[in-house]
Amino acid sequence: MGDDSEWMKLPIDQKCEHKVWKARLSGYEEALKLFQRIQDEKSPEWGKYLGLIKKFVTDSNAVAQLKGLEAALVFIENAHVAAKTTGEVVSGVVTKVFNQPKARAKELGTDICLMYMEIEKAEVVQEELLKGLENKNPKIVVACLETLRKALSEFGSKIVTLKPIVKILCKQFESREKAVRDEVKLLAVEIYKWIRDALRPPLQNINSVQLKELEEEWVKLPSSPPKQTRFLRSQQDLKAKFEQHQAHGEQSDGEDEEETVVAVDPYELLEAVEILSKIPKDFYDKIEAKKWQERREAVEAVEALTKNPKLENGDYGDLVRALKKVVGKDANVMLVSAAAKCLAALASGLRKKFGTYAGQVVPTILEKFKEKKPQVVQALQEAIDAIFLTTTLQNLSEDILGVMDNKNPSIKQQASLFLARSFRHCTQGTLPKSVLKPLCAALIKQVNDSAPEVRDAAFEALGTAMKVVGEKAVNPFLSDLDKLKLDKIKESADKVELPGGKKAAAGGGGAKKAPAKTLPPAEAPPKSSGPPKKTQTGAASKSSAASKKCKPTAVAGGKTKKSPDSKEFTEGELSIEVCEERAAGVLPASCLQQLDSANWKERLASMEEFQKAVETLDRTEMPCQALVKMLAKKPGWKETNFQVMQIKLHVVALIAQRGQFSKTSAAVVLDGLVDKVGDVKCGGNSKEGLTAIAEACSLPWTAEQVMSIAFAQKNPKNQAETLNWLANAMKEFGFAGINVKGFINNVKTALGATNPAVRTAAIALLGVMFLYMGARLRMFFEDEKPALLVQIDAEFEKMQGQSPPAPIRFTKKSGEEEEGDEGEDQEEDGAAAAQDIMDLLPRTDISDKITCDLLSKIGDKNWKIRKEGLDETAAIISEAKFITANIGDLPLALKARLCDSNKILVQQTLSILQQLSTAMGPGLKQHVKALGFPVITVLGDSKANVRAAAMTTLQAWVEQTGMKEWLEGEDLSEELKKENPFLRQEVLGWLAEKLPALRAVPGDLMTCVPQLYSCLEDRNGDVRKKAQDALPTFMMHLGYDKMDKAAGKLKTASRDQVVGMLEKARAVMPAKPAAPAKAGGGRGSAEPSRAASASRQPASEDLVDSKPEVKKVRGGAAGKKVAAGKKLAVKIQKDDEDKSGPIFILVPNSKEQRIKEEKQLKILKWNFTTPRDEYVEQLKTQMSTCFAKWLQDELFHLDFQRHVRAIGVMIERLESESDATISCLDLILKWFTLRFFDTNTTVLMKVLEYLKLLLAMLDSENYHLTEYEANSFIPYLILKVGESKDVVRKDVRAILASMCKVYPASKVFPFLMDGTKSKNSKQRAECLEELGCLIEGYGMNVCQPTAAKSLKEIAVHIGDRDTSVRNAALNTVVAVYNVCGEQVYKLIGNLSEKDMSMLEERIKRSAKKTTALAAAPAKPTVTERSQREHPANPNGTFLRKPAQEDPNKLKIMYRTYRIQARQNAQHSESSHPSIPKEFQLDLDMIEMDQSRVCELPDLVQHKLDELLEPIMIPEPSLCVQRMRSVSPHFDDLHNSTASTINFVISQVASGDINNSIQALAQIDEVLRQEDKAEVMSGHIDQFLIATFMQLRLIYSTHMADERVDKKDIVKLYSCIIGNMLSLFSMESLAREASLGVLKDLMHGVITLMLDGRMEDIEDGQQIIRTLNLLVTRVLVKSDQTNMISALLVLLQDSLATAAPPLFCELVIKCLWRMIRFLPETIDSINLDRILLDVHTFMKIFPKEKLKQLKSDVPHRTLKTLLHTLCKLRGAEILDHLSMIENRNESELEAHLRRSVKHNGNLSGLKSDRGNEKTGLCTEDWMSKAKVSDILTEIFKKIGSKENTKEGLTELYEYKQKYSDADLEPFLKNTSQFFQSYVERGLRLIESEREGKARIQTSAVIPQHGVDFSLSSSNEELKPAVYYERLKILRQRQGLENNSKQGVGGSEDEPQQRPPISSLLSSKPPVASSTDMLHSKLSQLKESRELYQQEHNTHSHSPTHAHTRSASPAANLDDLKKRLERIKSNRQ
Questions:
Q1: Is residue 1374's pLDDT more than 80?
Q2: Which three-class secondary structure string do you get for 1905-1972?
Q3: Can you give the pTM of this predicted structure?
Q4: Which residues does 562 contact at the CB level (< 8 Å), separation at least 6?
Q5: In this predicted structure, what is the pLDDT of residue 1105?
């Protein structure tokens, strides 16, 4: 029993691990109960048991294990952290539970596995269960199979991955144990339910008897698909839907079934077969044989092999070429059919892996369609359909377009039918406009073909396209077709059934059967799954029909809105008669008559009338075409008078702007406008008209018309001005939709013009186009004369680096189809856009030049001949410039040369491939598989120069093709499998660079992950590093879960390592780049980004060139000449002219963009231990846009002298280019961090010199470093503080001192703390010294995150083995001791005895020496001032340790000097040294002279010594007077105001009370002056945080410290409250307080109000009462949304943490106060945010939980808030739930709906109540509401200031009517004063009604709780108000009303003093808080003196009111006299 009693005392978790089984059993039982009790799934309690759960399930005692299993199950179900235990627990269940004899144990084990699956860990569970199948114990195998079956049955095949299970079935069917065979049979039946016939192929090899049994079981299964019955936590919506169906007993419709059934691809379940090695050795000889029988044998042998449904990947190139040759050239049709079948089988077996060969085979098959024999055609159809599924239509489109013009109708027909079949497998996403447009154009030609079968096939193809992408997308391409043909296309579209349906579209012989036959298993589910397929089909057709129905409706809706626009847009031309008639309807008759008058004055008058008429016409009424035709009437555009013409042109612009202007109308006026565009007087009006027309009819159309008209004329002036207008219009409208090709031709004409003005305008236009198109634009002008090219290049150079402006004008009719299409174009990626530009170039077909001789030369054995062949190829490409994608068999020949043993030829081949990329453009895509991947292979070459050339080639190719083609298929994975370190590191580096820029990647990227993981463990360090860099970029596309799952397949050791790296990568994973936003109705937004990328191209090219330079350092010496040789000569020539311009370019918002990109992880975060190449490259790229080119070259030069020279120039330009320097500051600082890693002292000293000047400049400019800049720089600066050279350390210290002026010291502190963790002892010591300086200079407030945490870390260094570190740590702790005294021992935590004794000794010594050294700084102060006035040496700082002095003697002096240096840095001014900063603290006097710290400014004396001074704010007389004496311009704001405010605010939270009071006094000085108070804007949160931190400090430290004088505390409280009152009297400043800050402020203030210790302090009660006023002020003046939210959060927290009831009560009172304000403030409140906070509150505290609380007030408060909101907003309140993600998480919505409904029922009642404000409510009211509700409403009115009289009247009438009504419950909780007030009010009304004399009632009504009254009145103080307040004071003090006594109290009776809140609840709007306070105190003193003359004592409790004076007027006069006296005293 002794043992029992011992373990019974243990905590639960220790019992669970006890060696006694009974103890464990007891522990499990208690744990089970505990787990059931814990409500919060994230409770920290769960964490205690995280490591124990495996022991729960693997307990050796069977009884204890059973209970442990139960507890584990509850843990897994409820704990948030349970998922972490999955692997170990399931493994334990499999090995230790499934072998138990007890059925209950197995059952619980299975439940645990299923529960883990429910919490999203299905994969891990499945993996462990599959491992269990390998166990030798059959019981375990059976249990694992059974668990897998249950999991599949309940969760379905979406959750349980079937492929690994199907693989093990065959092995289990062969088991010796019958139980295993029976269980696996049941599992096979369950799997069949889910995937049907897809299970047959994998089970073909099992025992025939077993297969027969299975077949019998399968037949018995129901045809309806199974449904998921158990759901994951993330599938709660599905669960709800399922339960709903179950409850209603409904059958789920087809849609649900579609969701449930997972189409499993049988292909995925099959094992791949390798056939290449099985091909007969003589196959390639036989296939070439002359005898057809031998050829047939060869083909049949291959056909037999290819029948395997899944083939192993390999090099099938030779086999495909051989079969292609048979298809293309063999005369025997049987062999053609057989070869085609082989190709189809290969495509089906290889799937996507066959895509490499698709481009070679498809053209041959298409050509072969000329065969008429049906069996050949069918075989070819099957082959081409199978091949299509391995690639994309985009890749095949060029081949298809090539045969669409073929003379043979069969080829055209079959090509169209193939397109029709292909379209069926496409979607809107995979069939973009860029692909569809050319195909539709070709099909439209065939629609008009003479052969009917060709026409029918074209109709079918167009119909299918229309079905797939919708009519809207296809219609623009069909505009030229007549209605009959359009109807036929629509008819075809109706017949088309997309995949899932069985109905084939009509047309085309054998084509009908082809789709069904050639679809691989993935696309067409097997026959036996007929019923589910039908359901799917039905569902699909329904959903598609629904979507189709929706679309036309939407479109129709859209069109009806814009119907006038669309009609006008397509309006026909009107006859002149109709135009005259319509114009006469809107224009005055005189106007029309005088239009063609011979007298110009009459024409002018007519035009003026015309203009007035147009200006008054409505848009819909204006007949635009009629009006412009009237303008064109004789004399029309031949008008000779310029005044008339100017008005005419202006009228055209007005009509275009104000009317519905069509292209028809535009055509009438464009000739005239262009004719006048060059006119000196009318040109401006003409351009205005052209711009207006461009807005109405779109710029692309207008520009095309204008250019053609201008260049049809011969007037050079008009041509030049047209070009100028167009250049400007492009900037205004953007570049979207511009017909580049048309422009290029006109621009070329202009460039050849003889008139220089035309040429200049053309070049300027090209410059604008360059902004949008980039460097590619130059390609169009390669053939121009060299002189002209120089001018063009100069223009392009000017535009280099500029980004295109955002469009400011937009086409009005953005709803038109044409522009809608343009909007769609914006969504296409940059590559597609580039392709559009490249498509315009004329291309040459060079296939005829790629002869057999040339190819044989390239493949010759002699390397010289091979070289000749390559030279010839290069010459052919060079001569053609731009070529088509058809280059014959050249790819195969070049591929062979990439493996050439002669490296020179390999490099030559790579240069040819680069040529190809430029020449071929986007057509290069189809050669990626054949030629691109061999380039990647070359990256594995051992020679660096070959690898560099290969990488350059690869980048050139990717630029043309995009990345998609490279990532599709398994080719990239195969390359990475090669264990070549060079290849791996190059490829991974390339992927890490490219992947972050992609928005989406093919799923095949997943195949590279296993290789990536193997690279992470590669022997080569560079490979591992590159793999780690690539890891986050893979993760951004594939997701963490997929990669984690892939890691699970690794060996245990590898898996742990990789998972750790995955976690790290997850933290730095870049965000996917966002899709380009559409601006201006979807127009023109993608263009700027495209242009920006284009304009960055040259920079990136430079980077590629300079890469070898960077790599040279690492040993790759090959590329040195490449970069330097080409460019140095040019640089030297241009050096002088380049350096004349600015060195920094001011690019607006560039820094913000960089910050944004780094936040979104689009670029690398500047964080490294040593700078890697990618960081340097990134910095270069970023600098290229805002640094002068020559400066950038200097900064990144290898010669350090160039760096010194560059920094010298930067120092010279620092002042003159200060704005630009600030805009590039982040880049400058980043470059300096790179220099910190250099070893050259010369550069380092120059860097530090610049940094000191830079920080001085930033301070003078009042600039503050952003966190982005500081994080990129300060950590690296701190590295240098540990430099061995003293001169460097000195400068770094000076820089750190200056840093605190431009970056808050509290933020520098954590960087220094990190520096103390360095291995460098000098760095640790210096960082500790700097920390000490910060604490002495700024107080404990700088210690971040908390003082305790920081001090503990600092104290650790006291035990350091290095003496200097120990001393520095001791000095720092001593500095803390000087600031916060004995509290330091609590902060530093536990120290060893040795360390503690050292510290105590040091503290004692410092205390002795402080007194002696206190006066020492006096002399340096003078020196400092002289230095400040005459800064002779900007680098000068105080030396820390003079060499000749004994360091032990000078420790304290040394620290004093450090403080002096810091202060000197804080006060020095580089630009205005003689003018001190505004409201600065005089640190020279205060902090340096320790002996005079107590000599703070005296409080302003008001001669009120005998009176209590509750809120005395000290006048900062000493500092302010000194400041004013130094600076005559004190009132002028200084440049560095913000930094000074930051400093002063930081002092508010100081641990030194006097420092804090000083800071508060200075802030009060600012707040007193209304014109100055605005400088606090932007600092309010900061100030309030400092304030409540000080309040916490007082509460927790000062109040508990007996050494602190309580008068100081009162003084500090007074200052804080006075500041707060001043601040919250200014609404503009008060509203800046944020939610979190308000919450903390209210928490601090309310905590203070409840602090019992305040009662013991003299004036404590006064402070509490004044706090009442402050709370009121805060509630009224703050942002109301923030205030309500803050109170809700505070209430929520206080309830959650079980705060004192009084605290909650006060928070609730504040909330009631805010609710009362709601009728006035409702319009300014963000209801969405309030309701979100209420939702969060109700989620955490549901109704049941609230009702469990002791008080129901929180619940009632919440209800009242919601009721009030519903009352004010009605049903509209339900629209404000938008911010709530899941509304079902709380009862908010339901409650609101009930309230809205209730309010609806009572609406009539409310209106009645509102109308009868003075009378009692009617009987109807009584019948509808409870008595308590009525009385509550009445007392609410009495308690409110506005409705008090009305409330009293209603209460009186209620009592008259219901005399027996009991008011006691409503009055018992109120104060005595309130009760007496109510009674007095009722008596007054009674006497009034009875005709007695009227007695004036009080106007100031306190609320129910006087002590914590929140009454506020913000009106200006008037005598009447003083009168009323004095009366209340008299009543509270029990004075006679007829005496003229004041109010007061003796000093020993603080509890009897009147509340200061009653005096301070209002203040004059102009007076400062101090003025107001003095006024109130004077008044209080006077009234007290009067009182003391007549009375010596007064009562201790407030009494009821007595009889009032008969003459209130006398009292009023008396009060006025007193006020006058107070004013005169003040003056």
A1: yes
A2: CCCCCCCCCCCCCCHHHHHHHHHHHHHHHCCCCCCCCCCCCCCCCHHHCCCHHHHHCCCCCCCCHHHH
A3: 0.41
A4: 813, 815
A5: 37
